[in-house]
Specification:
This protein is an alpha+beta fold. The chain has helices at residues 9-12, 30-35, 77-82, 85-105, 117-134, 138-146, 150-162, and strands at 40-46, 49-57, 63-71.
């Protein structure tokens, strides 16, 4: 990450830039680790500056920015004007719509009678990994989408960990 030296009018005009929303990898980005899993990094908004955004979703699925952090750049009026807040809001809304579509198609997690315990633990681990990419509370998301008590989901996750399908848990961290 470099420091932004000059934000010209040219950088503020809309352009066909390639924005990237990388996946969070613990230990690789100290700022993101400190902010938490609810935040997403957005690269390519402004050359040499990583922006972190946090969205909150309304009942209608539209997103609004509830947090914005700029890394390794002095906060100036030019920098703030260069951040396309509306476009960032749209990213959050599009991610929310994609997530809602995913949830509509998702088969609720249930233990089938006679199912191999290792196979079920593998399915639990898959759901857990998927939801931990989207939220810092993957067990709660599994519970809600599968209409299963949270305590039951915690038991399933514990079993998946004991069977080696998930790594040991860390208090306060999804994953």
């Amino acid at each position: 990450m470099g420091t932004l030296v000059n934000v010209s009018d040219e950088k503020r005009t809309p352009r066909e830039s390639k924005w990237n929303l990388p996946n969070h990898e613990a230990g690789k980005d100290e700022t993101w680790d400190r902010l938490g899993d609810e935040w997403r990094a957005v690269d390519g908004v402004i050359d040499g500056v990583r922006i972190y955004a946090k969205w909150t979703y309304r009942d209608d699925g539209r997103a609004y920015l509830s947090g914005l952090h700029v890394s390794d750049a002095p906060i100036t009026a030019d920098l703030l004007r260069a951040i396309p807040v509306g476009r960032l809001e749209n990213i959050g809304t599009n991610v929310g719509k994609a997530f809602a579509s995913l949830l509509d198609d998702l088969i609720p997690l249930r233990r089938e009678k006679g199912e191999d315990p290792d196979a079920f633990a593998e399915r639990v681990a898959g759901y857990y990994r998927m939801f931990s990419e989207l939220s810092s509370k993957p067990a709660k998301m599994i519970s809600v989408t599968s209409d299963v008590p949270l305590a039951t989901v915690h038991g399933w996750i514990r079993e998946a960990r004991l069977r080696g399908k998930l790594p040991p848990g860390k208090r306060g961290k999804a994953g």
